[in-house]
Amino acid sequence: MIHCRLVVGKALPVNTPSPMCENTHVCKPNVAEQTRKLVVLLNATAQDLFSIYLDCQGDPFSSHLDELCNANGTNFPDFDVNRTSHKKEIMVALYKVFAFLNASLGNITRDQEELNPTAKELRERLQNTTKTTRGLISNLTCLLCTNYKVSQVDVTYGKSSKGMTVFKKKQQGCQVLRRYVQVVSQAAQVLLPHLSQA
Fold first, then answer.
1. pLDDT, tens only, 37-64
2. Distance, CA of 110 to CA of 113 (rounded, Å)
3. Per DSSP, what are the bridge partners of residue 13?
């Protein structure tokens, strides 16, 4: 018999899986190592993506990096875990960071298709980073739902760039990608002792 409760006139099963975990089953045996390798890959390519982005935006972004690309104006989640943090805390922090990044990459890619339609290498790198990020989110979801019994993570997303001026679109992309370079480097360092043992 299914246990139900009444919610606004509808009977819902009590143990309904959260949307985050509803399609998650048993994780593949190597999912922890694959997750670590995806973070290492993103870390290895992040600085090049940022450099190409800057080149494509031109002046004043390439010449006034510290002023224009200060990441304090973004909602980029803090990555406030370290090597002594519990694995579960690290996985939650990673999920928050890469869920935010995935949404931001969508905005940045859309904007660059409009602002720099001939910048093929930039668009390819943005698309590859997005694909890798989505794979990472899938792995993190599996680990969180299956191994750590976390069914909900509160995530924040960046501001939509729709309706922004060209300058603001370029600036937001610059801020997000600069912070991404910093955070993915931290994440790669933190994961070394944790996921190689998992």
1. 999 999 999 999 999 999 999 999 988 9
2. 5
3. 4
- What are 12's two structure tokens? 């819902």
Question: How far out from the chain centre does Cα 58 lie?
Answer: 26
DSSP state letters, 26-90: PPPTTHHHHHHHHHHHHHHHHHHHHHHHHHHH-TTTTT-HHHH--GGGS-PPP----TTS-HHHH
Gap between the Cα atoms of 134 and 132, Å rounded? 5
> In this structure, which amino acid lies at residue 68?
L
Contact 183, 75 (CB under 8 A): no
Sign of CA dihedral 108, 100, 81, 32: negative
Are the CB atoms for 102 and 130 separated by under 8 Å? yes
Contact yes or no for 84/192 (Cβ under 8 A): no
Residue 181 tokens read as 């370079």
Q: How far apart are CA 12 and CA 145, in angstroms?
A: 21
Q: Give the global pTM.
A: 0.86
Beta bridge partners of 5: 12
